[in-house]
Specification:
The protein is of the alpha/beta class. The protein is built from eleven helices and eleven strands.
């Protein structure tokens, strides 16, 4: 069984039956118009190049993934990136990257990193962020939970996660705590791709996988009833657009552009097209102090 390419956080708002339809309804960004004042804020070197380059990890549906044609990037992050480019009067170019390489590559390989990335203090030490979404984390197991996974006691479990995510960090903390308490060992199974983490549970290699809630919810809908949510989404936190540390000019342009999309309704239309509007923010901030 193949999973639709599915990566970091939020709540899926459609039912399982609706999710497939939502995934096919990309938002039409051609209607988004350039804002001359905001476009003038974009650094000159980017304006002269004529493209806004954006790094994404394309296995994180419904945020960003490769479509049925095997080459086209789709998802709500993709649509928001293209809409932001339109506001800037630029073409948006999506650059496929592994999740853990995006922070180090912002400002060199591409202008921005937009990949459902949770804002953490550690990451803010390396890059600047503009907040644009909020999401939680979700556990998922085989239908019927045959391994009797209990999120209140995961000692002895095999936990599948994606490399570089906050969920990987949390899983390793659980592993360390179980060891410190002298309980059964936790095995953390990290994968470069979120699809591999979900597949590990389907095939029995792992007992449970842990991911951003919109991603986990979408993965569940793509497994023909083989996976189910365990408990409810927890710990909603803000996600951000990553910008080279200290590039204040670009950060201000991105903040203005995203706020413009929020204010004119485009932002919400994109989220509604993908059924993830419960994670919407009404304010885009540079390096927000409140991450919840």
């Amino acid at each position: 069984m193949m999973l639709v390419s599915t990566v970091a956080c939020g709540t899926t708002d459609e039912t399982a039956g609706d999710a497939g339809d939502a995934a096919k309804a990309n938002f039409d960004v051609s209607q988004v118009k350039k804002d001359d004042a905001i476009a003038a804020m974009v650094p000159e070197k980017i304006r002269e190049f004529g493209k806004l380059t954006v790094g994404m990890e394309l296995s994180y549906a419904p945020a960003e993934f490769v479509g049925d044609d095997g080459k086209t990037a789709e998802g709500y992050d993709v649509d928001l990136a293209k809409a932001l480019g339109k506001v800037f009067g630029l073409e948006t170019e999506i650059v496929s990257s592994t999740f853990d390489s995006i922070v180090p590559s912002v400002g060199s390989k591409y202008d921005l990193g937009i990949t459902a990335m949770t804002i953490t203090q550690e990451r803010m030490d390396a890059v600047d962020f503009v907040s644009y979404y909020k999401a939680g984390s979700m556990w998922a197991v085989k239908k019927g939970n045959p391994e009797h996974v209990d999120t209140s006691d995961l000692c002895g479990m095999k936990i599948a996660v994606q490399v570089g995510t906050t969920q990987e960090e949390e899983a390793n903390e659980i592993k360390q705590q179980c060891a410190a308490d002298g309980k059964k060992a936790v095995e953390v199974l990290p994968s470069k791709l979120q699809t591999d983490a979900a597949t590990a549970v389907v095939t029995g290699k792992a007992d449970v996988f842990y991911a951003d809630s919109p991603v986990a919810g979408y993965a569940i809908t793509q497994t023909d009833g083989q996976l189910e949510e365990l408990g409810s989404a927890e710990g909603e936190v803000k996600q951000g657009i990553a910008i080279k540390k200290g590039d204040t000019e670009l950060a201000k342009a991105v903040q203005a552009g995203m706020q413009h999309l929020m204010d004119d309704g485009t932002y919400m239309k994109v989220l509604e097209a993908w059924g993830v509007q419960s994670g919407a923010l009404d304010k885009a901030e540079i390096n927000p102090s409140d991450l919840d």
